[in-house]
Amino acid sequence: MSITPQMGQQGQQQGQQFPTTSPYQQQGFGPQGGQQGFGTGAGSMEQLQQLGQQQPFQQLLQQLGGQQQQQQPFGQAQQQDQQAQQQERQVQQELTQLAQQVVQQIVQQVQAQALASGVANGFIDIVHPLQGQPQQIFLRINGQFRVLNNPGPQIHQQIQEAFAFGHQIVGVWDTQSPNVLRSVRIQRI
Could you tell me if residue 180 is inside a domain? Predict the structure, then answer.
């Protein structure tokens, strides 16, 4: 904004007629300030530089600079969090894959196990085994004795009663270990 000579004279005349108490005009910020005011181009840059050298503004600039430096560790922490999350995802994926492999192996083992069964036509019940030996019942199925290890007292009684009353006793075993019974079923006909 430029002041024409006529306006400058009018402003001076008005200033004489009406004394001003405005702090802006007294400190050179008004139209009478000339080059010291912010309205002019060259003087304003110098004033800003001078203001920047004053202590309160220096402290403010240092604080702003310090905040920028503090943001870097925050950014690093955020990056570390992301890395930790990625590692956690990788571990979860590996655990899922491992669990799937274990399930597949178990399924293959179960599929490979073929169960067989047969009707018993005789038994040997070892009621009082030797010390350190498990309790056992041997059932004769298809001409071969197959053992049932650690049967409960109730099973002993049920097998004895089943043979006494002529009920069928069916033994079930795994074909990979045919001498060991996995279960016994009593059929009362």
Answer: yes
* Rounded distance between C-alpha atoms, residue 51 and residue 46, angstroms: 9
Cα distances (Å, whole numbers) of residue 23 to 11, 16, 189: 17, 17, 118
Instruction: Give residue-wise pLDDT tens across range 71-94.
Output: 456 667 788 888 888 999 998 998
Domain count, the chain: 2
Query: Which amino acid is present at 146?
Result: R
Domain's final residue, options 90, 112, 134:
112
pTM: 0.42
- CA–CA distance, 116 with 178 (Å, rounded to integer): 8
Question: Do 88 and 120 reside in the same domain of the chain?
Answer: no
The continuous run of DSSP H or E covering 20 comes out as: none
> Measured between alpha carbons, how far is residue 174 from residues 13, 125, 126, 135, 137 in Å?
121, 21, 23, 20, 17
Task: Report how far residue 91's alpha carbon sits from residue 106's, in angstroms, rounded to the nearest whole number.
Answer: 22
